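Hi there, hope your week has been kind to you so far. No rush at all, and the record is pasted right below.
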Amino acid sequence: MEVTGRIIEVLPLKSGTSARGEWKIQEYVIEYALDQQFPKKMCFNVWGENIDKFNIQKGQELTVSVDIDCREYQGRWFNDIRAWRVVPQTNTVPPVQPPTPDFGQGLGAAPTYSAPASNPVASSPEDAASDLPF
């Protein structure tokens, strides 16, 4: 299963030692279905070296691939949502930059804007005369 959303919480790292050796787990809360009136939230976990490999930060936009499993402990059942792949989302459209004013004349001078290189302005009086429609 894949979920795309924004990380809204990074929970504290948990670690310990078991019969199999050292372990560590990190839990994260992702908010998804952001286009709906009531966005959904899901807490998922990452185990072991994947914690450092994925390097998940609060506020990040991600697509998370998870496996959902359930286990029983002392008569109670617990869901386990474990991430096995994390892909950061990136914007493919670069932000538009406004023209930069040129304040080279000193204080009190009106700002001037440089024209783009592809501006078809006549460069000489002969070129201007040839553009006349009559």
